[in-house]
Amino acid sequence: MTEFFPIFIFLIISLGLSLILVGIPFIVAPQKADPEKISAYECGFDPFDDARGKFDIRFYLVAILFIIFDLEVSFLFPWSLVLGEINFFGFWTMIFFLLILTLGFVYEWKKGALDWE
Amino acid sequence: MFYLFESDFLGLIPETFLLLGLSTLLGYGVWYEKGRESEMTSHQLWVGGLCLAFTFILLCESPLMNMILCFNTLIIDGMSAYLKALILLSTLCIFGLSFSYLQQERIKAFEYVILLLLATLSLMLMVSSYDFISLYLAIEFQSLGLYVLAALKRDNEYSTEAGLKYFVLGAFSSGFYLFGASLIYGLTGTTNFEDLGILFTGVGPTDLFTQGSVVVGLLFLSVAFLFKISAAPFHMWSPDVYEGAPTVITAFFSVAPKLALFGVLIRVFYLGFFDFLFSWQQIFFFCSLASMVFGSFGALAQVKIKRLLAFSSIGHVGYMLIGLATGSLQGLQGIFLYLLIYLVMTINAFSVVLSLRTHEGEPRFLLDLKNLNLKSPILALTFSLTLFSMAGIPPLAGFLSKFYLFFAALDASLYSLAILGVLSSVISCFYYISIIKLMYFHKAEEVQLKPLVGIDGQKGFLLGITFFGILFIFLYPSPFFLLSHAAALSIS
Amino acid sequence: MSLIHSLHVSFVVFLLGLVGIYLNRKNIILVLMSIELMLLGINLNLLSFSVSLDDLLGQIFALFILTVAAAESAIGLAILVIYFRLRGTIDIEFIRLMKG
């Protein structure tokens, strides 16, 4: 347990420092809210519309594809460690697994999931 | 090291062929989709059907009869061969039904075929699995494909809602399964069914350790499986999902996952946990009672066709759970026979529902069936005899299967199950006959009846074959008896 | 510390996920998160059993569960997206097109 003590000190110091840095301006600075001061800035005009844009679905698609291939890589890690012991059979099994995932990759490429981003 | 696994590939030839076939179909579909959207689905259906037929032939001519493969994770025996054959046949029937359905619903996604083939592959692996890990992978494989298939019609609100509900319930029940499996693993140190069976020999109902802790894991496992086969009291999701999903997918749901899941139930509970008979027999006893009662009473209140078929399938699951609860060889044989006849009846029922399409769309309410006798008398006759068979009327196939199961239950002294089975058959008779009355004897109010869109060749063939089966299995049931007996013997 | 304490933790996490699906009155994203919580609890369960039994099988099982859970949540979110596109809301109250 004693080897974790420096980490505990680190935790306390970082927590304390960030609280001080955020808390002191909050306490010391004057806070007089004025309707002109807190409204959204749009080059001097009144805001025309809600500034938030619609969430583009391609971000979600890229995230999902990343997850799938990341899981493929997570299977590659232990395989690479024991490759010396499982010889050719282990190698070709993993190649078969990668081929199936490559088929999925070809499918998504052809369907256009990787365009415009 | 390589030579240790050579015969594994021999045993897995059907699955490997199906995998390679569907990969080829996927590559062909996605590469050549550009100019030929309209024919791509029918091309895929034909070649996919051919792929399934070849897999069926490979299965029947397999060089290995009994073997444990892949480092104790998969097994091939008589039951797995029987159930895999039934699963492949059911998917072939679904393909036959989908030709006209995809055209009429204007579904242009060829991935429909790929997903169905993937689900079939996973069902075959599920039936062969011999270990909790491989079983979980196969269950999730199947579920993921079916979640997408349930939500196939993306612009239809019912379909997306059905997909969402099916997803939530499927993931929830997989969570229960995993919890049970993790408890069993923690208490025994192994996940292999054969090892569990050997480990638990001689456990009696008074042994405190096992009865306290392993039974908890067993409870979670059985609840998870009962969720997935939509047995009462865990059946609430299936009417909604069956109603919302595209009709052909509903037909697949009613037939194929139940086949595979009964195989899984038999393997887990007869091979792995047979010594806990007195515990899980009570669970299946109760759920069988509840399913038969809910299936018959629930269907009385339905006004939509697909929900009615969902409740009737809950009732059928109840009958099959009787066979599971017996713990005897006859119960197993009864389940296998009932699965075969259930397959034939359900394919027939869904073929009829799919044939009732008019120019406005497919029938949703029971009242759309009215006066079928005037529109198409042969279809009305087919449907009425199928409904009689589902109710268990004597010279038809359904009677044979129920008769066998009730005798198996009586032999295992489960008297209340048999009595309640007969009673709920009588109650289900009531609503089946009310549908027949609607078809034949309804007052013809409107002068013009909406004409039916014609039935294409594949659906007509399926209707004919299944109707023939329903009528004449009773006259010559011995090949089916032999098959199911051989399948059951492989478990004992 | 000992096996029982980590089993308590994992069981509590599993129960939180389970109850989260049932007591949810807001939206479907909470259901998806609760499902992931259930799977997390199960993973913890398996890993603590694997440590106490000194067996690698639990960790292998947990690795497979992780992979499948991620793929499953991807598909679940995809179904949710098409549902939202059609209905415009993910409120639980509106998922009653089909009664029951």
UniProtKB/TrEMBL annotation, chain A:
Name under which the protein is recorded: NADH-ubiquinone oxidoreductase chain 3
Localisation: Mitochondrion membrane
Domain of life of the source: Eukaryota
Gene: nad3
E.C. numbers: 7.1.1.2
Functional summary from the UniProt entry: Core subunit of the mitochondrial membrane respiratory chain NADH dehydrogenase (Complex I) which catalyzes electron transfer from NADH through the respiratory chain, using ubiquinone as an electron acceptor. Essential for the catalytic activity of complex I. Core subunit of the mitochondrial membrane respiratory chain NADH dehydrogenase (Complex I) that is believed to belong to the minimal assembly required for catalysis. Complex I functions in the transfer of electrons from NADH to the respiratory chain. The immediate electron acceptor for the enzyme is believed to be ubiquinone.
InterPro entries, A to Z: NAD(P)H_OxRDtase_bac/plastid, NADH_UbQ/plastoQ_OxRdtase_su3, NDAH_ubi_oxred_su3_sf
Family: Belongs to the complex I subunit 3 family.
A molecular function GO annotation: oxidoreductase activity, acting on NAD(P)H
Catalysed reaction, written as an equation: a ubiquinone + NADH + 5 H(+)(in) = a ubiquinol + NAD(+) + 4 H(+)(out)
Automatic annotation (TrEMBL), chain B:
GO biological process: ATP synthesis coupled electron transport
Coiled coil regions in record: none
Keyword annotations of the record: Membrane, Mitochondrion, NAD, Translocase, Transmembrane, Transmembrane helix
Alphabetized Pfam families for the sequence: Proton_antipo_M
Chain segments annotated as transmembrane: 12-33, 45-69, 81-102, 109-127, 133-152, 164-188, 208-227, 248-270, 282-301, 308-329, 335-356, 377-397, 417-440, 461-482
InterPro entries attached to this UniProt entry: NADH-Q_OxRdtase_suN/2, ND/Mrp_TM
GO molecular function, one term: NADH dehydrogenase (ubiquinone) activity
Membrane topology: Multi-pass membrane protein
Gene Ontology cellular component terms for the protein in this record: membrane
Stretches assigned to the NADH:quinone oxidoreductase/Mrp antiporter transmembrane domain: 129-428
Localisation: Membrane
PANTHER family attached to this UniProt entry: NADH DEHYDROGENASE
Protein name listed in UniProt: NADH dehydrogenase subunit 2
Species for this entry: Chloropicon roscoffensis
Lineage: Eukaryota, Viridiplantae, Chlorophyta, Chloropicophyceae, Chloropicales
TrEMBL record, chain C:
Protein's name according to its UniProt entry: NADH-ubiquinone oxidoreductase chain 4L
One MF term in the entry's GO annotations: oxidoreductase activity, acting on NAD(P)H
GO cellular component: NADH dehydrogenase complex
Family the entry assigns: Belongs to the complex I subunit 4L family.
Membrane topology according to the record: Multi-pass membrane protein
Subcellular localization(s) per the UniProt record: Membrane
Keywords: Membrane, Mitochondrion, NAD, Translocase, Transmembrane, Transmembrane helix, Transport
Principal location listed in the UniProt entry: membrane
GO biological process terms, semicolon-separated: ATP synthesis coupled electron transport
Lineage, broadest ranks: Eukaryota, Viridiplantae, Chlorophyta, Chloropicophyceae, Chloropicales
One Pfam family this sequence matches: Oxidored_q2
Regions crossing the membrane: 6-23, 28-48, 60-86
Gene from which this protein is expressed: nad4L
Organism: Chloropicon roscoffensis
